[in-house]
Design a protein that fits this description.
Layout lengths: L3 H24 L3 H12 L4 H7 L6 H39 L20 H15 L3 E2 L5 E2 L1 H4 L25 E2 L5 H9 L4 E10 L10 E11 L4 H16 L5 E6 L4 E10 L21 E10 L1 H6 L8 E8 H9 L6 H4 L2 H4 L3
Helix pairs in contact: 1-2, 1-4, 2-4, 5-10
The protein binds 3,4-dihydroxyphenylalanine.
Length: 353
């Protein structure tokens, strides 16, 4: 249904829109406010859209001119919207540039937590540092080893239980993953002549896996070869090591023991660091099983058979050796109850070190 009034009413609506839209856009001070205002005019339910819907009622003779008018107003609105949008963006950028510069004196955010060395690496490095400070140099060697360097030349008889398939990881070509760092004694003594004072930190492998054993673990071997080396020298180095590593006044004791490559051989205990009284005596606690002592390593005077297997004259040269497990020492130093904690690598556990 057309109506002669329709053209007039549309013209009126357009005139009032035309008179106000620029001011309405100017009043919008944010991009969102501007878009909202624009939607009130050009959106689905907007004022101009409502006007367009009335076009059907405009008599045919007026339709063309009214149509042109509507389009003109629509273009004006669109143009004004774009202009205002650009003006707002320019103003925002200018405000940013005018804003005070960054305040470099503000305190920094707390740094995100940095990683740190694994407790095994830390303890290994601390042990190495102490022994280097006592005059030992680091000697490296392979983890895949010949049977003779790991066992034979160290005085293990061929049928020794340690050489058994159950205890060692053998390769198909007859080599094995070294079961201890004592192989470095052989490597050092077969490659150069005494005197020598070395430590050998490294990874070793055994077929073991429980609360106190891991199939892969770390050891540090230490040995000294010179003329007139005695058990007293060994004891002196061990005492000094205990003092520097576990703290002043830490006592050391040697208990006779057997290893094929030393004679005499001993196991070494340190005074339990957990129940020590100020006077140096120990109360006894669960860590040391009420004994006041904790075993940390094996040691002894290098067996003449070992010297001979390396072409060194045992009449002229003597020496001592000791070897310790890094995990074991870490457990003693930090009171860690289960070896596996060191390998599970829970961040909450590691963060304590
Ligand atoms: N190699 C021995 C082990 O793995 C530890 C050891 C004992 C090393 C006595 C030594 C030593 O140098 O003298 O059980």
């Amino acid at each position: 249904m057309t109506s002669p009034d329709a053209a007039g009413s549309i013209q009126q609506s357009l005139a009032s829109l035309r008179a106000t839209f620029r001011a309405r856009f100017e009043a919008a001070s944010t991009e969102q406010a501007l878009r909202d205002e624009n939607a009130k005019i050009l959106g689905k339910k907007g004022e101009l859209t409502a006007v367009l819907k009335q076009m059907g009622a405009v008599p045919a003779d007026a339709r063309k001119s009214i149509g042109e008018l509507v389009n003109a107003v629509k273009q004006e609105v669109e143009g004004a919207f774009e202009d205002r949008l650009k003006a707002l963006a320019r103003a925002a950028r200018a405000a940013e540039l005018d804003a005070p510069a960054f305040d470099l004196t503000l305190p920094a955010r707390p740094p995100s937590p940095l990683g740190h060395a694994h407790p095994i690496s830390k303890v290994r490095d601390e042990i190495v540092d102490v022994l280097v400070s006592l005059g030992f140099a680091v000697h490296d060697g392979p983890e895949v080893e010949l049977e003779e360097n790991n066992f034979g030349k160290l005085g293990f008889p061929p049928d020794h239980p340690a050489t058994d398939m159950q205890d060692s990881f053998w390769t198909t070509s007859g080599t094995l993953l070294r079961t201890h760092t004592s192989n470095i004694q052989i490597r050092a003594m077969t490659s150069h002549a005494p005197p020598m004072a070395y430590i050998a930190p490294g990874v070793v492998y055994r077929r073991d896996d429980d609360a106190t054993h891991s199939p892969m673990f770390h050891q540090i071997e230490c040995f000294l070869v010179d003329e007139h080396v005695t058990l007293a020298n060994l004891r002196g180095v061990l005492s000094e090591f205990a003092e520097r590593f576990f703290g002043a006044g830490t006592p050391v004791r040697l208990r006779p023991s057997y290893f094929p490559f030393v004679e005499p051989g001993a196991e070494v205990d340190v005074g339990c660091p957990f129940c020590r009284r100020p006077d140096g005596t120990r109360a006894g606690c669960s860590v040391c099983k009420r004994t006041g002592w904790i075993e940390i390593l094996g040691c002894g005077m290098i067996h003449p058979v070992v010297f001979e297997s390396c072409g060194i004259d045992p009449e002229k040269w003597t020496g001592f050796a000791f070897g310790m497990g890094v995990e074991r020492v870490a457990m003693v130093k930090y009171g860690i109850p289960d070896l596996r904690l060191l390998f599970e690598n829970s961040p909450r556990f590691l963060a304590q070190f």
